[in-house]
Amino acid sequence: MYYTCSNTWLSRHFSDKFVKESKRFGYRSRAWFKLDEMQKANNIITSGMTVLDLGSSPGGWSQYASQKVNNLGHVISCDIKPMLEVSKVSFILGDAFKKDVLKKICKIKNKVDVILCDIAPNITGITEIDHPKCISINYKALNLCKYILLKNGKFIIKSFNGSEFKRYYTAIKKLFKKTKIFKPVASRLNSQEIYIIAIGYKV
C-alpha cells in the first residue's frame, strides 16, 4: 500500500503544471509561483529591502526574493535542511527559532523588512496531528517578529485550515495594520494550505 500511494503522489507531482514550469525556467521549486502570485497582488518585496526567508530549502522563495530586492537589498535564508547556493543570498543552516541561529541572522542584518515563512511540518495526513504542529510553527515564526522585523514590516506565512487557525489569525491581526488570507492558484487543489499576508508591523 505504501508503494502504491508513493507512486501515485510521484505521478501527480511530475505531471503538475507548476512543477513542469519550474523545471522549464530553472526555478528551485513550484513554490516560486506561489510567491509570485502574492507579490503581484500585494507588492510585498521591493528593491533595496532586506528579506528573511524561513524554511528556505530548496530555495524557490529565496531565488524569487533575490530578484526583487536587486543589488541594493539582501536576502537571508535559513533552514534545517541544506540548500544549494543562490546568487546574492546568505544561507544559514539551522533552526531560526533557536537563539544561537537567530544571533547568526542578526549578525548579517539586525532588522529585516520582510519575513517569509513557508515552513510546514512533516505531514501525516491526519488533521488532528498535522494542524497543531503547523500552528506551533506559526506561533514561533510570529514570535520572531519582535526580535528582527522592522516597524511597518511585512510577514508572509503558510498555515493550514483547522480548529486553531482563527485564534492564530486573530493574534496576527493585533500586531499588523493590514492582514489578508490568500490561497494561491499554484497551491495543490487537495491542499489545506493557505497563506497569511500581514503588512504594517506595529512593534
From TrEMBL:
The active site is at K158. One of its GO terms (molecular function) is rRNA (uridine-2'-O-)-methyltransferase activity. It catalyses: uridine(2552) in 23S rRNA + S-adenosyl-L-methionine = 2'-O-methyluridine(2552) in 23S rRNA + S-adenosyl-L-homocysteine + H(+). S-adenosyl-L-methionine binds at G59, W61, D79, D95, D118. Residues 27-201 form the Ribosomal RNA methyltransferase FtsJ domain. Pfam families: FtsJ (PF01728). Keywords: Cytoplasm, Methyltransferase, rRNA processing, S-adenosyl-L-methionine, Transferase. GO terms for cellular component: cytoplasm. The keyword tRNA-binding does not apply. Its main location: cytoplasm. The keyword Metal-binding does not apply. Its EC number is 2.1.1.166. It is found in: Cytoplasm. Specifically methylates the uridine in position 2552 of 23S rRNA at the 2'-O position of the ribose in the fully assembled 50S ribosomal subunit. Belongs to the class I-like SAM-binding methyltransferase superfamily. RNA methyltransferase RlmE family. This is Ribosomal RNA large subunit methyltransferase E. It comes from Wigglesworthia glossinidia endosymbiont of Glossina morsitans morsitans.
